[in-house]
C-alpha cells in the first residue's frame, strides 16, 4: 500500500504544517481541500462516474481550471458556484494539495474494441500534446490515463459542442470533427490506460 | 463476527474497561482527559456511523494514526437517506444505499463496535452501551442524526409509524412506503405531510413528491401526490414547482401551511390526516413529523430548549459539555442546513479540531461546504450549493458564492445535474465507507 502511505504522509504533513501556522483567518490546505472530497472522493480519488479524479493532477492545471471556474470563464453546472466561495490564494492551496496526492486510476473495465478505435484516434491526433497515452501532464494537458470514462466523455462532448471555442483551439478543431461513437472510444481508451 | 474479536474489543473498550472486573471502576474512570493511554495520543469515540460520524472517525485517523478511534454504531449496516427517494420512485434498490463498516475497520484502523450508547458521563469521560459495556474517551463525537417529535401529531407514535411510515430514516420504512405505493390502486392519492423547520434534508419531501409522481406517471397515471406542508415556502421551491409542472402537471399539488397544510392529528386506521380546517383521507400516507436532535443527545443533556445541540461552530464542541462534540443534523450549525454533505463537512472540521487539541495545538480556521442535489425526473436534476466560513463565531455563507441551479437551464444541463447527483452519492459514500 505504498500509494496510500504516501497520501497519508502528505495529509499528516499538511495538518501539522497548518497547525503551527494557523494565523487568524488563514485556512490550511487540507481544511480547504477536504471540502472537495464529498464530490471528488477522499483526497480527490473519485469513485466515479461523472466526477473527475483530481488527486494527483498537475498543480498548474488545477489552478488554472479553478480560477477559470471562479471568474466564470469556464462553463459548469456547479463548480462556478463553488469556486466563487474561495479566494484566489485558497484555490491555489487546494490545487497544490490535490496535486500532492497520488493519482488513483479508475478501476473501470473497458471494451477492447472501443479501446482500439480510441487508440488509433489518439495516435493520429492527440499524442503530441497528451504524451504517453495521456499519462504525461504538461503545458495545460491534464492527465487522461485512468480517468473515469464518463467524465472524459462529458468533457469531450462539451468541447465538441464548443468547436473552435473549446480551449485550446487546436483541440476543439479536432474534436468537433469526431462522431459521438469516436468520442466514446477515446474515453474508453484513456480509461484503459491505468 | 469479526467486529468482536478479543483484540478489537480490548482496543475498543480501552484496557480499563476490559479489566473492569479486576480493578475498581473508580480507579479506571478517575483518569483525566488528554492522557496518553496505550501509547497513543488519546482516545476518540464517535457515536453514530452516518454521514457525520463515519467521516469524523475516518478523518481523525487519516490526520493522525496515533490517535485511537472507536466508532460505535447501533446497526450493523448503514442505509443512506440521500437518494432513498429513488427507491420510492422505483429506479433504485435499497441495497444500493446499504453499506457496512468493514473497510473502515480493516483498512482505516478504526475500531468499529456495534452497540447502542444509552448514557454519557461527561465528568468521567465514559459512555455506556445497551450491551452493558462501558467505553472511555478523551474526546467524544456525537453524530446521532434526528429523532421525531411524535407528540406534535395526535395519534402518531413510533409504533404507528411502522404502518404510516415517515421513512425519514432510510431502511425498513422506506421499503414499507414503496410497497404501499405498489399496492395502491390507480386513481389513488398519496399524501406527504412535510414537517416544520428545522428538519433533516430541507428539499427531501419535495424530491420525494416528484419521485412518487414519477412512479405514478409510469404505472398509475390517474393517481395524485399531494404535499401538505407545515410551512409557507420551501427549499428550491421555484425549481421544484417548475419541474412538477413540466413532468407531472396536476399530478402533484402543494398545500401551504397557511392554505391548510398544517397537520395536527392522524387516524391511522382510516389513513386520515387531520388539519386545522380540513381532513385528508389518503390511500397512502407519508407523515413526516417535526424533529429534534437524536435520542442520545437528549438523554445526555447536549440539546437545549430548541431540541437541538448548541456548539462552538469552529470546533463543534458542545456548549453544554466539555470534550464532547456534536456534528450533523443534531447540532446548531449557523447557516448550514441539516444535510448529508453538511454533516460530512462538519465531520472533517470537527476531526481537525480534535486532532489539533490532542496534539496540543489551537484549532485551525474552518472551511465548510454544502451541496444538495434533487432528482425530479430521471434526467432532470437540480442543486443548491453553498460555501461557508466562520465570522464572529458563526457559520455564514460566503457572499457571491453558492446558490441554486438557474431556472432557465437547458434540458441537457438538468440531465447532467441528475447524473452528478448519482455520482455525488458514489463519492460521498466512498468518502464515508472506504
TrEMBL record, chain A:
Keyword terms: Electron transport, Heme, Iron, Metal-binding, Signal, Transport
Gene3D superfamilies xref list: Cytochrome c-like domain
Record bears the keyword Transmembrane: no
Domain Cytochrome c: 23-102, 113-194
Signal sequence interval, chain numbering: 1-23
Molecular function per GO: electron transfer activity; heme binding; metal ion binding
InterPro entries, A to Z: Cyt_c-like_dom, Cyt_c-like_dom_sf, Cytochrome_c_Oxidase_Subunit
Alphabetized PANTHER family for the sequence: CBB3-TYPE CYTOCHROME C OXIDASE SUBUNIT FIXP, CYTOCHROME C4
This protein's name: C-type cytochrome
Organism of this sequence: Candidatus Thiodiazotropha lotti
Lineage: Bacteria, Pseudomonadati, Pseudomonadota, Gammaproteobacteria, Chromatiales
UniProtKB/TrEMBL annotation, chain B:
UniProt KW keywords: FAD, Flavoprotein, Signal
PROSITE patterns named in the record: TAT
Signal peptide: 1-29
Molecular-function annotations in GO: flavin adenine dinucleotide binding; oxidoreductase activity
Domain Sulfide dehydrogenase [flavocytochrome c] flavoprotein chain central intervals: 174-289
Keyword Cell membrane in annotation: no
Keyword Flavoprotein (UniProt): yes
InterPro entries xref list: FAD/NAD-bd_sf (IPR036188), FAD/NAD-binding_dom (IPR023753), FAD/NAD-linked_Rdtase_dimer_sf (IPR016156), FCSD_central (IPR049386), FlavoCytC_S_DH_flav-bd (IPR015323), FlavoCytC_S_DH_flav-bd_sf (IPR037092), SQRD (IPR052541), TAT_signal (IPR006311)
Domain called Flavocytochrome c sulphide dehydrogenase flavin-binding: residue spans: 365-433
Domain annotation FAD/NAD(P)-binding: ranges: 43-160
PANTHER family: FAD-DEPENDENT PYRIDINE NUCLEOTIDE-DISULPHIDE OXIDOREDUCTASE, PTHR43755
Name assigned to this protein: NAD(P)/FAD-dependent oxidoreductase
Lineage: Bacteria, Pseudomonadati, Pseudomonadota, Gammaproteobacteria, Chromatiales
